[in-house]
Amino acid sequence: MKRLSTHVVIALAAGALMTATDRVEAQQAWSTIKGRIVWGGGATRPLPDQLPVGANAACLAANRGANAAKGTIPDESVLVHRRDLGFKNVFVWLISNNSFPVNPKMPKFPPQVEVDQPSCMFWPRAIALHQGQVLVVKNTSDMQHNVRYIGKNNPGASITLAPRGPTQIKGLVAERLPMVVVCDIHGWMKGRIAVFDHPYFAITDDNGNFEIPNAPVGQFAIMIYHETFGYRLGKDSRDGEPINIKGAVTDLGNLKMGK
Ligand SMILES: [Cu+2]
Asked: How far is CA 45 from the centre of its chain?
């Protein structure tokens, strides 16, 4: 039998690999992960602290929750819904030691994510973006703000924002945990910016709900993290909680968090 030339053998081997990969992709199923993070720290929900903003009339005037007589605005670091105890602004994301399969039908992310500082607060306070998205930091107030963030993989920056002056932050890369963002002019202004190199992340809404569509069926781990409480189950869950993703919907139900 005539020997096959080296390049023909390599080409055949590559063809076999391609076929195997295609088969895996064809068999990969997708599921929507959903659930709700609820306050689990006791019978009474935590009420927001009141942050003294002193004589800063502009902050008081612009903030709907302000108490002008006392000169305070509500601290938004822990927000638990007064009726259903849903826990807002909790980051939820999948982690894996390997790269994730991605559904080819998954919609593309919009080019940018926006955050504003209209009332001496970052709104939204919890920000999540996919690597490649541009973070647009707006300032629709009549005050000067700045935005400073510190990352482990990102060099960080401190950017002054004139009244009505937006800025764009490009080239953010994935971080293991959300980065802290602050305004140095108003010491109480804090938020978190999470950056992911995969599309499987969400932030809980006012009622604690989250949803991660198009997640790959299989055994993975899920991270549940809040700026004040850290990992949902403490250090035991710093490498995530096991999750078996299966069926059209993987419903995790109510997950308690807080202490
Ligand atoms: Cu500020």
From this structure: 23
